[in-house]
Amino acid sequence: MSKFGTIHRRSLDQMAGFWAEAAADIHWDKPWDKVLDESKAPFYRWFTGGQLNTCYNALDRHVENGRGDQAALIYDSPITGSQQTRSYKALRDETARFAGVLVENGVGKGDRVIIYMPMVPETIVAMLACARIGAVHSVVFGGFASNELATRIDDAQPCAIISASCGIEPSRVVAYKPLLDKAIDLARHKPECCIILQRSQETAALMDGRDIDWTDAVAAAVPQDCVSVDATDPLYILYTSGTTGEPKGIVRDHGGHAVALNWTMQNIYDVKPGEVYWAASDVGWIVGHSYIVYAPLLHGNTTVIFEGKPVGTPDPGAFWRVVAEHKVACMFTAPTAIRAIKQQDPAGEFARQYDLSHLRSLFLAGERCDPPTLAWVEEILGVPVIDHWWQTETGWAIASNCLGIETLPIKAGSTARATPGWDVQILDSDGHEMAPGEVGAIACRLPLPPGTLPGLWRANDRYKHAYLDRFPGFYETGDAGYIDEDGYIFVMARTDDIINVAGHRLSTGAMEEVLAAHPDVAECAVVGVADELKGQIPIGCVVLKAGVDRLPEAIVGEVIQMIRDQIGPVATFKKAVVVSRLPKTRSGKILRGTMQRIADCEDYRMPATIEDPDVLGEIRASLQSIGYASQ
Ligand code: COA
Ligand code: AMP
């Protein structure tokens, strides 16, 4: 058996021993009683009885072990033309002080804090400060609208919200404070205070008695030490799209998370403490949580927070400049970002302007990487490009080429083999394991390894129903695909209504809920169609209520604006069309899959249960009117 095969086998056969060994690289205030606690299966817990502090492990420990002067965090912001570097010691001190602000304002162990911030170092300080005092953070991506923020406020019930006056997009300054104020108005739950970072690009008006200026509060704060928390206590909640408008609050614990993420840095990404690691994502997504913040800092690396875009800030060389300037050893981004660069610089001329000799690998995730994009970036960088597969729920890669263990041959279109800790199977609709090459539901045998979701925030039934009930003994990933003869996993599609827009996970069901609320709309369907740059984008078909005689274009304009206002610009919902009816089965189920294939000009089989086949011709004509369904 190969070295990788041996380690993978051991991770499944001797699960407790395998992860106990990895846990030795983390500082524990109190050792665990049990590595894997199966007493409440299918709810598994890792390292029960153990106590630790994630912030201590990410900052203080490195200062005490001689890394105090090493850069912990580089802020590179082409969009504001600024750069800053914080050493481990400086980041620890700043975090301890900001933890003092939280404590001063009544935040304590177990309290929730929502963080709605742009890509600035203070966002990371806020996250780590929560971890330092045992508070539970919930970061909300800045591209979400007030309505989405309000839903999260009501679910997490934070005592404090941390935000900034604005975020900066290439085309505009996004005033965050009015969005925050509106969200608090919409929410039933009201936070006791809001701590606002004022940025020079736009100053926010502060509300007396509720809003606190970040800088003033920090100046007066008393630094706080780390508090011990249980390994099983929640570190954060990260909301992600579910199959309804209600997002799922994915919970992450302290102990398993610290152990697993630290382990991945050496074994998957093959980086050593002290090296520079850069995930070009947003802190508001899981990739940002795991690989801008926690994993690199737990492992003693230098991490980069980049406030910019792959193109336009100022040119398609932005990523390569950052790699060269900061001597990045390993980089991580989404395929959509590479496609954006490729579109503007097909010959890779910008990459050639920079010294990329420190870069040893590029990892991609968030959506399937199309083989031409993989080949293009491999060619221009001359390093292994690794497509790896994971989810907000799992917190780290389910399948990847593990460069720190053994580099396996790269097969374009595949995310390589299940990583250690993961037993991945392809199941048919009855839950039977399928043969190599057969496409089915991708499921992972329980228990999942440490660092994965122990449940949903205060919604254990929903957790069980959404992930565990369909295939007893397995976690249902919601992805479909196959495993080949060599054990390589090919992730092909979602089995639910989730789409991936520029690497951002969105629910078409949630968009339909918004459209259905328009007073003139009787019913609607939103499907994800192929997009050269963003992978997928949503388009909508709406049927109007009988008697509505307003101009269809006016209604289309209104529903587009509704999605932007209620979900956010990140949904990229720019096209919709009024249709006279939707294709349905005889039992009334809308044939969204068939609509998507018509829009993308893919072959499709006429569904046997279709109510009226003629409707498909009408849908094709409507889709053609908005630029789809024609070769
Ligand atoms: N705050 C406010 N608005 C935001 C935002 C934020 N943090 N992030 C994005 N938006 C807005 C954008 O301004 C844009 O608005 P517009 O419709 O007015 O133009 C909209 O949301 C869509 O943004 P985006 O998806 O970023 O599209 P883009 O056209 O600006 O850029 C890419 C396209 C491919 C360059 C960009 O999507 C990208 O870099 N993607 C990488 C994604 C990624 O890292 N994913 C994480 C998984 S690894
Ligand atoms: P998120 O929770 O936002 O990380 O999105 C997770 C989903 O993105 C997965 O369930 C997949 O559908 C998709 N995904 C992520 N990485 C990959 C990949 N490398 N290949 C194919 N799909 C991916």
Could you describe the 3D structure shown?
- The structure is a single chain.
- The chain has 631 residues and is an alpha/beta fold.
- It has 2 domains: 3-308 and 388-481, Rossmann fold (3-Layer(aba) Sandwich); 502-624, ANL, C-terminal domain (GMP Synthetase, Chain A, domain 3, 2-Layer Sandwich).
- The protein is built from 19 helices and 29 strands.
- Strands 5-4-17-16-18-19-20 form a 7-stranded mixed β-sheet, sandwiched between helices. Strands 7-6-8-11-12 form a 5-stranded parallel β-sheet, sandwiched between helices. The chain has a 4-stranded antiparallel β-sheet with strand order 21-22-23-24.
- Helix 1 (3-13) crosses helix 2 and helix 9 (255-267) packs across helix 10.
Give descriptors for this structure.
631 residues, binds coenzyme A, binds adenosine monophosphate, five-stranded parallel sheet, 19 helices, seven-stranded mixed sheet, GMP Synthetase, Chain A, domain 3, Rossmann fold
List the helices and strands and how they pair.
Blueprint: H1 3-13, H2 15-23, E1 34-37, E2 45-48, E3 51-52, H3 54-67, E4 71-77, E5 82-87, H4 88-104, E6 112-116, H5 121-133, E7 136-139, H6 146-156, E8 160-164, E9 166-169, E10 172-175, H7 176-186, E11 193-197, E12 211-213, H8 214-219, E13 229-230, E14 234-240, E15 248-253, H9 255-267, E16 276-279, H10 286-298, E17 302-306, H11 318-326, E18 328-333, H12 335-344, H13 349-352, E19 361-364, H14 371-381, E20 385-387, E21 424-427, E22 440-445, H15 460-468, E23 474-483, E24 489-494, E25 498-501, E26 504-507, H16 508-516, E27 521-531, E28 535-544, H17 552-566, E29 575-578, H18 592-599, H19 614-625
Parallel strand pairs: 4-17, 6-7, 6-8, 8-11, 11-12, 16-17, 16-18, 18-19, 19-20, 28-29
Antiparallel strand pairs: 1-2, 3-13, 4-5, 9-10, 14-15, 21-22, 22-23, 23-24, 25-26, 27-28
Helix pairs in contact: 1-2, 3-4, 3-5, 3-10, 4-5, 6-7, 9-10, 12-14
The structure holds coenzyme A (COA) and adenosine monophosphate.
